[in-house]
Amino acid sequence: MDAIKEFGKLKVVGTDLCDEKGNPIQLKGPSTLGLVWYPDYINQEAFRTVRDWGANAIRLAMYTVEEEGYLSDGDQAFTEDLIDKGVKYATELGMYVIIDWHILSDGNPMTYVEESKVFFTKMTEKYKDYTNVIYEICNEPNGDDVTWEVVKGYAEIIVPLIRKTCPESIIMIGTPSWSQRVDQAAENPVEGTNLMYSLHYYAETHRQPLRDKLIKAREKGLPVFISEYSICDASGNGALNYDEANEWARLADENKIGFMQWNLANRNESSSMVKVECTKLSDWAEADLTETGIYFKKRMSGEISFVK
Ligand code: IDC
Q1: Can you tell me which atom of ligand 1 is nearest the CA of 236?
Q2: pTM of the prediction?
Q3: Do 154 and 137 contact (CB within 8 A), yes or no?
Q4: Which of 45, 198, 237, 257 sits 20 to 30 Å CA-CA off 10?
Q5: How many CB atoms within 10 Å of residue 23?
């Protein structure tokens, strides 16, 4: 399916991400692992494979200061080229694409706010005519002093900057404590339109208490998007928890909340969707997929679905 044609220019209405006509829609797809760690997965056939399973979006996770990070020891031109390829392939396939400023050990988004300004200026100049590009401005703020007020302050710098070139694009804003405190954002949201707030979960670690936060935040009117989740524990590894994964899936489906699964790569960790020994870069058969990968495929195809 060509989701771009079907949904058109997205907009946020109340708590919902909607198509151009105002009907709530659910974006769904994989998140890459660090773009530069697994650059070969940024290829058109890989994206087509997941689209054929049912994905309508791709998240391009670009680490800022982890190993080979964009701001640390990474090659910026190479990284930007990967983003460019990712956007191009997604666009050609009729998919939405999320450009993710993947802060993690740099828990305070203000630490590199100047660099973020430069990055998003560059990205928005490049992609201002692409209605399918979504900007995620801080993956997972974290740290004791990184309160919602700090994150909000950062958003109040980056959102207006993006708005100069892209007045209507969807922007996703991370929340404190590794994008779990949507309840705090709901108390004091950022002004503006077409803004969504990220909630991330790892099903073995994050359970009903976090689901309750999501429910309450929506009740308060906050638009929430699950820009990252997986079905193992928060380390990205360890045991899978299908019961909890399905409770999360039910909550997402019943409320038409979009969800992006971590991660499309073959790293030796249980959140990777492709088996370590599999070297294929697209057209994965079930035998090539990890249990996480098989779950992902079932979520994309609707074989695991809780839509009423
Ligand atoms: C993990 C990767 C792992 C990598 C690590 C880097 O799976 O291979 O070594 O990052 O520090 C998140 C983050 C995401 C993490 C993931 C699993 O957004 O970057 O990826 N996770 O720990 N939040 C919760 C879990």
Answers
A1: 17
A2: 0.99
A3: yes
A4: 45
A5: 11
Grouping H, G, I as helix, E, B as strand and the rest as coil, residue 228 is strand
How far is residue 196 CA from its own chain's centroid? 11
User: Is 228 an annotated catalytic residue?
Assistant: yes
Residue 156 is a catalytic residue: no
In order of 35, 147, 254, 269, 306, the CA distances from 243 in angstroms are: 30, 32, 16, 20, 13
Please work out whether the CB of residue 304 comes within 6 Å of at least one atom of ligand 1: no
CA angle (27, 30, 32) in 5-degree steps? 135
Helices 113-127, 148-165: inter-axial angle, 10-degree rounding: 30
267 CB under 6 A from ligand 1? yes
- Ligand 1 centre from 117 Cα, in Å? 24
pLDDT tens per residue, range 213-244? 999 999 999 999 999 999 999 999 999 999 99
Instruction: Report pLDDT digits (tens) over 114-153.
Output: 999 999 999 999 999 999 999 999 999 999 999 999 999 9
Ligand 1 and 270: CB distance under 6 A: no
Q: What is the DSSP string of 14-80?
A: TTEEE-TTS-B---EEEEES-TTTSGGG-SHHHHHHHHHHT--EEEEEEESSSTT-TTTTS-HHHHH
Residue with tokens 């997929």: 289
Ligand 1: does its nearest atom lie under 6 Å from the Cβ of 201? no
Whether pLDDT at 308 is above 90 = no
Average pLDDT, the chain: 98
Percentage of the chain modeled with pLDDT above 90: 99
Q: Which atom of ligand 1 is nearest to the CA of 267?
A: 8
Query: Is residue 232 within 6 Å of ligand 1 at its C-beta?
Result: no
